[in-house]
Amino acid sequence: MSFKHYYLLLVLMCSAASAQYISTDETYTPLQLIENVLINSGCASVSNVTVSGGNFVTGENSWGYFNANGSSFPFAEGIILSTGKITDAQGPNNFVSDDGNGMSWDGDLDLNQALNITNSINATYLEFDFIPLGNQISFDYIFASEEYHGNATCTYSDGFAFLLKEVGNPTYQNLALIPNTTIPVKVTSVHPDIPGSCAAQNEQYFDAFNDTEYPTNFNGQTKVLTAKSAVIPGHQYHIKLVIADEGNYRYDSAIFLKGSSFELGVDLGPDRTFANQNAVCYNESLTLIGTSAGALSYQWNFNGTPIAGQNTATLNFNPPYLSSQNGTYSLKTIYSATCTTSSAIDLNFAPQLVTGQTSYSYCDADALQDGITTITLSDIIPTLFLNLPTSYQVSFYDSPTSTTPLSNSYLNTIPLHQPIYAKIDNNNCYTAIPVTITITVFTDTITDETICLCNNTPVTLAADSGYKSYLWNTGETTLSIQVTVPATYTVTIENADGCNKIKTFTVIGSEIATISNIIISDLIDNSSVEIVPSGNGNYDYSLDGVRYQDSPIFEHLSGIVYTAFVRDKNGCGIAEQEFNLLQIPKYFTPNNDGFNDYWNIKGINSVSPNANSIIYIFDRFGKLIKQISPTSLGWDSSFNGKQMPADDYWYYIQLKDGRSAKGHFTLKR
Description:
This is Choice-of-anchor L domain-containing protein. By secondary structure, the protein is mainly β. It folds into 6 domains: 3-258, no CATH class; 286-347, Immunoglobulins (Immunoglobulin-like, Sandwich), CATH 2.60.40.10; 359-440; 449-510, Sandwich (Immunoglobulin-like); 514-580, Immunoglobulin-like; 587-667, Immunoglobulin-like (Sandwich). It has 4 helices and 44 strands. The strands form 12 sheets. Strands 1, 3, 4, 6, 9, 10, 11 and 13 form an 8-stranded antiparallel beta sheet that branches. Strands 2-5-12-7-8 form a 5-stranded antiparallel beta sheet, sandwiched between helices. Strands 38-44-43-39-40 form a 5-stranded mixed beta sheet, with no helix packed on it. A hairpin with a 5-residue loop joins strand 39 (614-618) and strand 40. The longest helix has 16 residues, at 3-18. Residues 1-18 have low confidence and may be disordered.
């Protein structure tokens, strides 16, 4: 690439970059700014133009002309008045404009009085006299400021005013106000919510906080606002457009006045819009009057397009209306070949509302089926009104004359049947619409059930019969279902009125037990057993099959042959197993009467694992008297053919299962 081509590309790139920001021009005279930029019409009758601003040693001005310069700034061109150098107002937004320090740059007494302050400094103003042709003036503007940043947004603001008075009248009125209020436009009066610092103020008129790549070098600005006032045609007026820092020179601000926006037309009345809550009613006739002395001709327009045949000073509207008639109506008034004014009004026409459903039935949704329940009133609106404009706000009231809206989550106060009334809150064209609320009850008792699923055998869950429909949480719609898995199952039962109740089945898995072990503690004075089951169930225990207990442990057992019973509490069956306890008699009476003639332990038979165990009997001196088998009759009290005397004798038992025991018993004569 040649140097020439490279240089051309660089120039084009720089030009493209600079086109992102506004440009300013300080060569315009004050009269040129008013006549050729702000008014830009042959209708102007301007005199006594005066300007004042900062006297910077470098020669820059705090007032002048600006051009959007291909950027996204809302105004193509206009006038800028600043508390600093207007050259510093050009983007990008990459430094804080802080001009005016140490210049003895005074404030403005008229501004102080208009804003009720005493400490303005660094004031810039542009003022002039004019004679209006119509009965209204208006112009568009934007307020921008470096004070739109952080918490300062809540606390600090420079001030500005558009001060108007009839010549000879000592009192100004300020046109730079929040629409439909007496509040001056400031940083502190127009901003969004600042978390942790302050709530939003007139946020609908705030535009944005700016990043670096913005057409101006200000941190934020308002949306496009319109200043307007009624005037008397042919009378001379004086207007002063003024801005100043408040308190100190820090953080400059500016007002941007849109070029060609200063209109000298007629007042067609306030905008009648949905947003302003004053739309033209569906049954109302309206006449716009734009009569102006000295006018040669008129032309009415709708959304910028001439309305055929409407070339008089009035425009009439009569019902019925269509939504296609909503828009901006303007009147072009021609006074001469070089003087044409335009006046505009926004009109919305409220439609005649078409009501649909006005009676609604709901099921009593709480446990107490008394015809009192909570409903969501906003759910009614889509079917109550069939052609409701999106901007309409509907509320409900307990009487046609009530001014206290009902809660959207509404608990009716009259059981079963409740009348309420719907009203359009933000439009006074309509009367209250009566709405009937019916609450249907489901009074039948539906009882939940707990059912056991035994040994993985399928079980049938049956809902209460005689109702309109059934919907199980399994997706089935039959009266009953069969399940094979323990879980919680629900069925929604719908009655003939369309109301529902839910029945819950808690299915518990269970099974008959397996007795895996019986832990025996015998050969002691207090024999006991512990029954050890296995299985998925909830069990209780018995040794006689009649009396059951939750504990698997049984104590103080004196019998020999027992049966252990393990019962599933959910009815899935009873497991049983016989077992023996070994009992050691405390005495015996060998007198050949057939009772207790032999001494031996009890509970071991020939098929017992301990059948081959050995029992040793000793006298009190430790002499072995007898060795017996637990399956024999036992000891008959003899030793070497002689009967032993009555006394206590000792035993030692060694069982084949590894257990052993020793103790004593009594031989009684």
